[in-house]
Design a protein that fits this description.
alpha/beta, TIM Barrel, binds alpha-D-glucopyranose
Length: 414
């Protein structure tokens, strides 16, 4: 887990047949778009026609990997097969794959090669639930395709064969990110066996908690207690107090959809995105931030702009994010991260003058701005903790960072 704990920030990529309609089916939008087939109850025969249209000629995988680099993201997790059941890689075990489309190129190979070239860690998203495979059970309750003779055991064999391809044919894979594990046919024994299979194929791969069933009463935040999985995956939320004692990763959209959504312009601002990264890091978690390329492969411009803004901020302030640990204190004025003898104070709502870090204990040596390391910030110890005196102007309009160096690792008042 050590590289992953250091990394703090990754890119999620949702791409599939659903990216072509972008949520629009016969003139209507049906809500969360990679779920389109389900939400619009598209008949099997009609949906699979999308494969004949799949030709993302403007997909530039290397540019996506370079974008992640530029954004300061340290790993990429990409959908190899989403709930729709279509494989974006060359699979010997499925004819519903990218090789059966006009595009006819293995997109996962392109990711593997680019990531290797740019020293980017790569992970595979894989949906256990599969709306295409004839052996997958249960069927959607609206599905009319006959399920006579379907065998979930056979589906599991198919899935294992695909996982074997994904973990054998593409070099080192750092993460397996499972999803779609919540249906009645999945159980702990299968989850553990899947975990063990992936580990056998690649001893260093790490996996999210969705490989296993949710523990009774549990949710995406649940980890441990005999369940398989190395980290938990709160979705579209940053837990209020983090998840102390646990490795966790918030997965988050840049608008309101995972898959490309023609009708969704609700893009988060750079300030909001940087705030989310700061918040997850200060609570001890990772942020997996999603892009949903369009059907032709282009990345929506607002995603590019947002990621570049984050990268620009990280180039100055990245030391306050990468390799840090959760905040020792909880104060309303700012967030903090910790690393060894350093505390980074991340200030989004800058107010010149005293800033009190109540509860922080230790002997400070000095404080400086990450944006201008020669500029010392006055500080003093108070009965309460430590107080800084912020200068008139913040060096960054969105979030400025003051680093406090201590004589020895600081602590918080019990
Ligand atoms: C949910 C959705 C899925 C999405 C995933 C991302 O499980 O079903 O569409 O890919 O969240 O975390």
């Amino acid at each position: 887990m050590s590289w992953w704990r250091e990394a703090r920030f990754g890119m999620f990529v949702h791409f599939g047949l659903y990216s072509i309609p972008g949520g629009e089916w016969k003139g209507t939008f049906v809500g969360s778009h990679e779920w389109m087939r389900n939400n619009a109850k598209v008949p099997h025969e009609e949906y699979i026609q999308l494969a004949q249209q799949f030709n993302p000629t403007r997909l530039d995988v290397d540019a996506i990997v370079r974008l992640a680099k530029e954004a300061g993201q340290r790993y990429i997790v990409v959908t190899t097969k989403h709930h729709e059941g279509f494989s974006l890689f060359d699979s010997r075990h499925s004819t519903y794959d990218v090789m059966a489309t006009p595009y006819r190129r293995d997109i996962m190979r392109a990711f593997a090669e680019s990531c290797r070239r740019h020293e980017m860690k790569l992970g595979w998203y894989y949906s256990i639930m599969d709306w295409y495979h004839p052996d997958y059970l249960p069927r959607r309750d609206w599905e009319v395709r006959d399920a006579t003779g379907a065998s979930f055991d056979r589906y599991v064999q198919f899935m294992n064969a695909q996982l074997t391809e994904l973990l054998t044919n593409y070099g080192e894979i750092s993460v397996m990110w499972f999803d779609g594990q919540w249906e009645s046919t999945w159980n702990h024994t299968l989850g553990q066996a899947t975990y063990d299979l992936c580990r056998r194929l690649q001893p260093r791969v790490i996996m999210n908690n969705r490989v296993d069933v949710k523990a009774a009463g549990g949710d995406d935040r649940t980890l441990g207690g005999g369940m398989a999985g190395d980290y938990s995956t709160p979705e579209l939320e940053v837990p209020a107090r983090g998840l102390p004692g646990q490795d966790w990763e918030t997965c988050m959209t840049m608008n309101d959809n995972w898959g490309y959504a023609k009708d969704d312009e609700n893009w988060k601002s750079p300030a909001k995105l940087i705030g989310l990264l700061v918040e997850t890091a200060s609570k001890g978690g990772n942020l997996l931030l999603n892009i949903g390329p369009m059907g032709d492969g282009r990345v929506p411009q607002p995603s590019i702009d947002g990621l570049r803004a984050m990268g620009a901020w990280l180039r100055v302030n990245g030391d306050a994010i990468y390799g840090t640990e959760a905040s020792l204190i909880d104060v309303p004025e700012c967030r903090t991260t910790t690393r060894g003898r350093e505390v980074n104070v991340l200030v989004e709502r800058w107010r010149p003058g005293p800033l009190s870090l109540a509860g922080l204990r230790g002997t400070p040596r000095r404080a400086l701005l990450l944006a201008d390391r020669r500029a010392e910030i006055p500080l003093r110890t108070t009965p309460d903790g430590i107080a800084l005196v912020l200068p008139d102007r913040p060096p960054d309009p969105i979030c400025s960072v003051v680093r406090i160096e201590f004589e020895a690792p600081p602590s918080s008042r019990a």
